[in-house]
Fold this protein.
Amino acid sequence: MRKLCLLAAFAVFAVQVMTAGGDNTQAVEPGIDTMPPVLTMQSLPCGVREFTATETRNIPDPPRATPNERDQVERGIQSIRLALDPQAQNIKLTLINPTTFPKDPKVTSATFQVALIDASKGGSCVVEVRDWNNNLTTRQITIGAATPTLSAAAINVGLIKVGQNGQGTLTVTNNTGAPLVITSITLANGTRFAVTAGGGSVTIPAGGTHTIAFSYTPIIGSEAGDSDVLTVATACGDVTCALSGTGGVSRISTTDALTFDETRADYEDCTPAPGPTEITITNTGNEAMNITGWTFNNRVLRSCWYPTAPVVAAGASVTINVCFKRVNSWCSNGQCDLR
């Protein structure tokens, strides 16, 4: 009889623990929990990482109504947080479902997201998920900048001759692990620059690229230069590229007049005087100038020396020597037309 009483007392002790004050008791859950929570992850747009934490590894599964001493029985999720050491950099954690973790009823599945605070910069952190038996799962997370990157912050198409078109391309790269939607591609001005290909809404696959082509059409007034700003808009943030170009213009300046003082009708004078002794042709523009020829509107004038089809560089000059031969006793005038 005494032996049976001792066994009964031991059985009671197995399911009750006295508190320090000796007045209250806490039930000891049957079974054991040695397995930490399980984490799975998927990448969402804009660098967001969505995690699911589960506590469902019961052995046997489902658990017995009264588990045995060595049965694996999950205790449920206790907390989800960013680790304090190392400290998170440019990262925020958001609990999705649920947002609290009671011990009873226990939480066996929880969804949360880790995202960048500033999408234009990368970030890193360590996530800690703990169950009610203090089993801990950690995950190191590194996220690159979510906003797309451009192949150049500024593009200068250079000197483009008026009447011609300059061309350029810009490459957009999706740095995230999910598709990136470009919602629009716009120009701030759109007068001299135009998007010729790759505009509009487009989806760039994870880690992929997209090419935008543009043109530059200068006018006479573009000699001082043109500029515009191309903006690529996405849900993850906008990026811009400064565009610039200069219109190439040839501007001609010549000697105003030549004066010949020869009075004899049978003599050809090739040394004008007083004043300039030759026609000087100057290119005052910023683009090379091709002179294809010239003509005189009076037969008393002719060119006696000249360069053949000269190309006059910007800021440079060429000269033409002119001779005069009278055909009568009257004063003669003539004009030289350049082309």
Observations:
- The radius of gyration is 43 Å.
- The chain has three domains: 26-143, 149-248, 252-338.
- Residues 252-338 form one domain.
